[in-house]
Amino acid sequence: MSSLSLAVRDSSTMLRRNLLHARRYPSLTLNLLLTPIMLLLLFVYIFGDTMSAGIGGGGADRAEYIAYLVPGLLLMTIGSTTIGTAVSVSNDMTEGIIARFRTMAIHRGSVLVGHVVGSVLQSVASVLLVGAVGVAIGFRSHDASALEWLAAFGLLVLFATALTWIAVGMGLVSPNAEAASNNAMPLIFLPLISSTFVPVDAMPGWFQPIAAYQPFTPAIETLRGLLLGREIGHNGWLAVAWCIGLAVLGYVWSTRRFNDDPK
């Protein structure tokens, strides 16, 4: 077999392995998925009227706030899901299975590729579930074209790939699963200080640069513009640049760490 055929075969095997693990032990994914769903329901039904009145500067309009909120929580869902990837990678590193894989005649990078592709697929499935909840409580995307929907899906996949590679690196450097979960917490924390819940302009002046110059805000504004048929301005290029930069950083970090000889 050629080197490429071997890599594809072994990566497919590792992907099936990770998907089987996710199916047999769904509790971690479900627990992480509950966070964005609970935040969605909380902010819509408890804070929705107040938040929409504050953002709009007029009367309360819960439907308007649902349209504002859902895109941000879709990206937050990706961040939550990739924490499970960090934990899964850490478990593989500490439980001895990686040492066994190193002695086998398999493509070395297939282990990481299996984790990344499996995590991206889980992220997309989680986004679809949270999106379905959003539609059930009133989210609508009447003004988006088919091309904008396709671009929105591409952005979600690209963002999931970037965060997954970062999560893999976090899992590789963590001594145990608990540490991996803690190290990956910024993937949930950063959306909380972005434009997920309120516009950046509504934040205190000293805090606005913190919210604006981080990866989630331009990605959220781009997704929001695509789904609602609005202008995205420079946010589209910023979002793609962040995704590519994080993906390259995570890939280089993860592969170098994984290829280090165990001590």
Give an account of the 3D structure.
The chain is an all-alpha fold and 263 residues long. The protein is 76% helix and 0% strand. It contains twelve helices and no strands. It has helices spanning 3-24, 27-45, 48-56, 62-94, 97-102, 110-136, 146-173, 177-183, 186-192, 208-212, 216-228, 235-259. The longest helix is centred in the first third of the chain and has 33 residues, at 62-94. The radius of gyration is 19 Å and the shape is elongated. The model has no long low-confidence stretch (mean pLDDT 86).
Count of helix runs: 12
Question: Which bin fits the share of residues in helices?
Answer: over 70%
Please tell me what the overall shape is.
Answer: elongated
Distance N terminus to C terminus? 32 Å
Mean pLDDT across the residues is 86
The major pleated sheet works out as: none
Short structural summary:
With 263 residues, the chain is mainly α. It has helices at residues 3-24, 27-45, 48-56, 62-94, 97-102, 110-136, 146-173, 177-183, 186-192, 208-212, 216-228, 235-259.
